[in-house]
Write a structure and sequence with these properties.
The complex is a heterodimer of chains A (898) and B (108).
Chain A lengths: L6 H22 L1 H27 L3 H5 L4 H4 L7 H21 L1 H30 L10 E9 L2 E3 L4 H10 L3 E15 L6 E8 L3 H5 L3 E4 L14 E5 H8 L8 E5 L2 E9 L14 E4 L3 H4 L17 E6 L5 H19 L6 E6 L7 H37 L1 H9 L4 H34 L4 E2 L2 E2 L8 H28 L2 H6 L8 H37 L10 E6 L8 H16 L4 E7 L9 E6 L12 E7 L3 H5 L3 E4 L13 E5 H7 L9 E4 L6 E8 L14 E5 L8 E7 L3 H15 L5 E6 H8 L1 H35 L1 H9 L4 H33 L12 H27 L3 H6 L2
Parallel strand pairs in A: 4-9, 6-8, 17-22, 19-21
Antiparallel strand pairs in A: 1-2, 1-10, 1-11, 3-4, 3-7, 3-10, 5-8, 6-9, 7-8, 12-13, 14-23, 14-24, 15-23, 16-17, 16-20, 18-21, 19-22, 20-21
Chain B lengths: L8 H13 L5 H12 L5 H14 L2 E5 L12 E5 L1 H18 L8
Antiparallel strand pairs in B: 1-2
Classes of the chains: A alpha+beta (898), B mainly alpha (108).
Chain lengths: 898, 108
């Protein structure tokens, strides 16, 4: 009878039955009344069911009629209008509930904001550095041309004649383009010279690659001819800085490498050149190479043997990477006889949507690992929200029990709870996304590509948006599941029966809450352990001895070659610069060196040592540096035998060199190195006398074994661009401005490319580790904070629930200290169980990052102990306030509430 | 004439019972009234089905009264004939009267 009757009518119908039953009972006795009742019951089931079916159906005919008012308020109805209507009711109701508990709401939303923004930041870095194609027309049809001379000998560059021949003979590409990165010295009208990254591009580049022009025109074929008028195209960012609004564009003239160029067009700010992470701001024609890429000073265009250009092509619609490669190899084969090439090379194509970039490949794995860590943080955040929702659902046990008793189904109540969670989730996602966009902008300067700063357009795009929405929805569902799960298991009768005592979720809910806190601590510990390993790695790397006086040297890179000076004038410039810099108050020495210390690259030459027999496969190509006499003093490199280089070591005098310790031991193990002879190249090349031995220093990077290297005096070699090294008495950073101004005053036409301290320069070596550590540490701290909030919330809630029990204990003689210990102990127990699980996860995570560690094992006792200690203290702090509150429970108050 | 406007025999009985009872029309009284006059047994469920239908058509209105002790503390649902219901009754009677016009009961 009950279930066949529409809820709203149940009262009226059952009331009727009871009334009649009673009347019949009085008049004719119980027997007759019962018989009547059963007759009624059976006869009413069918029409009752029919009514009920009609209530739940959404036949159009039914919907058209106006429902009786008392039915409209029914909790149980499923017609579409009504679902929407009642969802709206849920939203309004949830809004009121949320507003009633501002603290809980704030904590829940902030947890989500932290979790979502952290993962969105890492994702947007991953997106910008690894996933995004170049901002050009149809990047997927671009192919990068590479050549292979042997299994491990892949080359990315080609000569200009190669390019011209490929382009003339190819049939599978819309067109081929060639480009090369270069650093340009720009002197704006009335401004100071500065170094700006640019690209030399073929006349086919702009029409084929298709960067978006916002004003003027690109480089065209007629610009890329011998003797063509010098023109240049500029990125919007640089144009705005130099000339203002690009909408008021008109061709301007600009001094580039001391030649006058006409700026004929402006490309959109989002095009930074053909390398992901680069920040090319200027584009000139390949045919301007002698002016725009003068490092060698020579005209590279006619040289078949000098490979300096990257070649890319846009495939025709019917062409594939295979047919394109076959096409180019056909041309290569036809050229080969004419070229006297020792080895045949095989051309092949790779996807060119990211140009020729190392950043995506290099950062993909670290960023993916960090993204994994960030998602763990999100999981910790979800546990927080779940815990808060669970506690609130328990508080609302009575309300929910009443709803259930009134006929609300579990699905209906679950929906109410889900709507609430979704509202929290939506708020958290939206704010998290905003925070992520802001934080990602801060994170980009952390990245660098082999010491070069990285330019990335991080921010909102559809991928980042999709990721944020997905994580938002995912975490909301995850967080919302716990309370819903709990509701579907709760028994309304129990909750109602408990009356004024305030329902408890029963053992299931409490266990779930404790489990969530344990999970939070486990994940936090694992993240802290990993971060600790990264911190130790960075510390170890920074402590590697370099051989330099790391803390008292300033480095200023200059390029007098760009000012079109010849060798004598360049030597004079370096001599003047050295003298002026050394006389700056606070500076103690200055010296020139061609190669910047630990700057990833350097100069190499094949070496021949008389009477030294190299073993098979011994690498006789070794590093050297061209330096001024002041170099050793400026860097604090001590000479351990013979003499340093002097002012007298110039052209026309005997050729000399200073070798490092490793070189001395390698080639002359039995006698003194000083006085020995070496040849750069063959035995027939000029003899160079070793006049001194210097202590070993790191040459290319921190993580290198000691290798032979030697120094040649700048007076006896063709001078190039280079670095002024200045030794300072105090912190070089404080002197940097003065040094820069002093150097600029030596010759305003010579640009200062970079100015940084030696410590900063060596730190560029550990930049990848530093980025990983910074982000990893931030993630670990975020997780720890979230876990602490989770524990605090959980303990506070438990104390509130157990107030009566605590009151009784105190009434029975427990002192506040006992109570405090009780609560602290409980909090600590959760943290310890979590830590135990976390150690296992942490060791697993450590294994994942083993390759990235230096001087520390993936199972590092120090890191583990420190992490557990940190975690335990955080757990104590988080439980302290609830414990104190518990110890102040007044038994009289609590017991009176009964 | 649309089908929605025509009243079935049972519906007419229910409406007429409510008209007879006035302020005292609720489940029990309506059912008793019909049973008393027609000598037929009526299931409560069927009665409420009809009442719901009539209410949806706008022929009757209902309200819940205060709970009474003889009903175990449950409320009564009181019904009242609305103007549309009265007019539908009159039309139904007029329709059937027109069919009877010209026929003596003895002729059948």
């Amino acid at each position: 009878m009950n279930w066949s009757t529409v809820e709203a009518d149940r009262q009226a119908v059952v009331g009727d039955l009871v009334e009649e039953f009673t009347a019949l009972d009085e008049q004719f006795g119980a027997e007759r009344a019962r018989r009547w009742f059963w007759h009624q019951a059976v006869a009413s089931v069918i029409p009752g069911l029919r009514r009920r079916v009609r209530e739940v159906s959404w036949l159009p005919g039914f919907r058209a009629s106006t429902p009786p008012r008392h039915l409209a308020s029914t909790l149980h109805d499923f017609s579409k209008d009504r679902v929407m209507n009642s969802v709206w009711q849920d939203v309004r109701f949830s809004w009121r509930t949320i507003r009633r508990r501002p603290l809980v709401t704030t904590v829940a939303v902030l947890s989500l904001v932290v979790g979502i923004s952290m993962s969105a930041v890492v994702f947007s870095l991953l997106d910008a550095a690894v996933l995004s194609p170049l901002d050009v027309k149809e990047p997927r049809r671009l192919a990068l041309v590479l050549n292979r001379r042997g299994p491990d000998n892949v080359n990315h560059n080609f000569s200009y004649p190669d390019f011209v021949d490929y382009r003339a003979g190819q049939r599978t590409f819309v067109d081929l383009v060639a480009y090369s990165r270069t650093d340009l010295t720009v002197r704006p009208p009335g401004g100071v010279a500065e170094v700006i990254h640019g690209e030399l591009v073929s006349g086919s580049f702009f029409p084929t690659i298709g960067p978006r022009l916002i004003a003027g025109r690109g480089i065209v074929e007629s610009d890329d001819q011998p003797g063509a008028a010098p023109v240049i195209v500029m990125n919007e960012v640089l144009w705005r800085r130099l000339f203002g609004d690009p909408r008021a564009f008109q061709p301007k003239s600009l001094l580039v490498n001391d030649r006058e160029f006409a700026v004929v067009g402006v490309v959109e700010a989002t095009f930074h050149g053909m390398t992901i992470g680069s920040n090319a701001r200027l584009w000139g024609a390949v045919n301007q190479q002698q002016v725009l890429n003068p490092l060698s000073g020579a005209n590279l265009l006619p040289r078949r043997g000098t490979s300096w250009l990257t070649i890319m092509g846009r495939l025709k619609p019917d062409a594939t990477f295979e047919t394109g490669a076959a096409d180019l190899n056909r041309i290569e084969a036809s050229l080969a006889p004419a070229m006297k090439r020792q080895e045949k090379r095989q051309l092949f194509l790779e996807p060119g949507e990211q140009g020729d970039s190392s950043l995506p490949e290099r950062t993909a794995l670290p960023l993916q690992l960090l993204l994994g860590a960030a998602l763990l943080v999100l999981l910790v955040a979800c546990a927080n929200v779940a815990n808060l929702l669970l506690a609130r659902a328990t508080d609302r046990g009575r309300e929910i029990a009443v709803r259930t008793a009134l006929g609300a189904s579990r699905a209906r109540i679950s929906r109410l709870l889900l709507v609430e969670t979704l509202m929290l989730g939506a708020a958290g996602s939206a704010l998290g996304l905003l925070a992520a966009v802001w934080m990602a902008g801060l994170a980009v300067p952390l990245l660098s590509d082999y010491g070069r700063p990285v330019t990335l357009d991080v921010g909102l795009n559809w991928r980042v948006l999709l990721f944020a929405v997905a994580t938002g929805v995912g975490s909301t569902i995850l967080a919302g599941l716990a309370p819903v799960f709990n509701v579907s298991r709760s028994r309304p009768a129990g909750s109602l029966g408990e009356g004024g005592r305030g329902a408890s979720a029963g053992p299931g809910g409490a266990r779930l809450r404790r489990g969530l806190v344990i999970l939070q601590f486990a994940l936090s510990l694992a993240l802290i352990v990993s971060a600790a390993l990264l911190v130790r790695t960075l510390m170890n790397l920074r402590a590697i001895p370099t051989g330099f006086d790391l803390h008292h040297v300033a480095l200023l890179s200059v390029d007098p070659v760009a000012a079109q000076y010849k060798a004598p004038r360049i030597r004079q410039y370096y001599a003047d610069a050295e003298a002026r810099l050394a006389s700056v108050p606070g500076a103690t020495a200055a010296g020139y060196g061609r190669v910047i210390p630990v700057g990833f690259g350097g100069s190499r030459t094949t070496l021949t040592v008389p009477r030294y027999q190299p073993v098979a496969d011994e690498d006789m190509e070794i590093n050297y540096n061209t330096v001024s006499p002041g170099y050793f003093a400026a860097l604090g490199i001590s000479i351990i035998a013979g003499r340093a280089l002097t002012e007298g070591d110039i052209e026309g005098r005997p050729l000399v060199a200073v070798v490092n310790e490793t070189m001395a031991k390698r080639y002359w193990p039995n006698g003194p190195a000083v006085g020995q002879i070496i040849h750069e190249g063959e035995l027939t090349d000029p003899a160079i006398e070793v006049v001194g031995v210097a202590r070993d220093v790191k040459y290319r990077m921190l993580r290198e074994e000691a290798r032979p290297s030697f120094y040649r005096p700048v007076g006896q070699r063709r001078p190039g661009p280079g670095v002024m090294h200045v030794r300072t008495a105090g912190n070089p950073a404080t002197l940097m401005d003065t040094l820069r101004k002093t150097l600029a005053a030596v010759d305003p036409a010579v640009p200062i490319a970079e100015a940084l301290t030696l410590r900063q320069q060596t730190d560029l070596n550990v930049n990848d580790e530093r980025v990983a550590m910074t982000i990893g540490l931030a993630l670990a701290l975020a997780a720890l904070l979230l876990a602490a909030v989770g524990l605090y919330g959980s303990m506070s809630y438990t104390v509130g629930q157990r107030a009566r029990e605590i009151g009784v204990r105190m009434a029975l003689g427990a002192v506040p200290g006992d109570v405090r210990r009780l609560v602290l102990g409980q909090g600590l127990r959760l943290a310890i169980v979590g830590s135990a699980a976390g150690v296992a996860i942490g060791i697993g995570l450590g294994r994942r990052i083993e390759d990235r560690l230096y001087g520390v094992s993936s199972v590092d006792i120090v890191s583990l102990v420190v992490s557990v200690a940190v975690l335990a203290s955080v757990a104590l702090v988080a439980s302290w306030a609830p414990a104190r509150r518990a110890s102040r429970v007044d038994p009289v108050d609590v017991l009176r509430m009964e | 004439m649309s089908r929605a406007d025509s009243l079935g025999e049972f519906e007419q009985s229910v409406l007429l019972a409510i008209a007879h009872l006035g302020d005292d029309a609720y489940g029990v009284s309506v059912r008793r009234e019909i049973e008393r006059r027609t000598q037929r047994t009526i299931a409560v469920g069927a009665l409420y089905t009809a009442l719901d239908r009539l209410e949806r058509k706008g022929y009757v209105s209902s309200r819940m009264s205060d709970p009474t002790p003889e009903r175990g503390g449950r409320s009564k649902r009181h019904f009242r004939l609305r103007a549309a219901g009265a007019s539908a009754l009159r039309q139904a009677r007029a329709r059937i009267n027109r069919m009877w016009d010209g026929i003596e009961e003895s002729e059948i």
